[in-house]
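Hi, here's the filled form for the chain we discussed.

Project: internal
Contact: R.S.
Residues: 182
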Amino acid sequence: MLVRFVITSAKGLQMNLTVRNATPGDADRIVTVIESAFQAVPHSDHTEQFIVNALQEAGALSVSLAAAVDRVIIGHVALSPVHISDGTTEWYGVGPVSVLPDYQGKGAGSRLMKRALNDIKTQGASGCVVLGDPDYYGRFGFQAVEGLVFPGVPAEYFQALSFGNGFPQGEVTYHRAFYAHG
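And the returned structure, exactly as it came back:
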């Protein structure tokens, strides 16, 4: 499915943004987008592109969306299954979410997130978790949940969004691809 939006550039120009399913032919451009998006991020270990590639190779990308302006990919979002120690199933991890620096703050990331959450919910997901900025992800309904943890990170940065069945309780483990380093 192809969804089109209009966003405004830093110079005030209107641009058509398309959000669509990523294809295997997009892989190299997605890597470039991810590298650029995280290049100046101080908390990044700069392995995000390896994570997406490893998720793809493992067949663990449940949702992989590309955002494009004039057919040039400027953003990407990935969702993959997570394991929760209480045995709850059908929960997914959001990430990485990547938008080229020149397009950040213009709505591309929000459009990717909204579409990704809708797509995973349509696939039967019970909810999603994300590790990131509480202010940003809070806009989509994510919240810190007592008893749902990702060890080693401040609780307020690990958030969850339930699609209606409450929240699981336990430790969350991301797919082994999140340990990819090249």
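Let me know if anything looks off before we file it.
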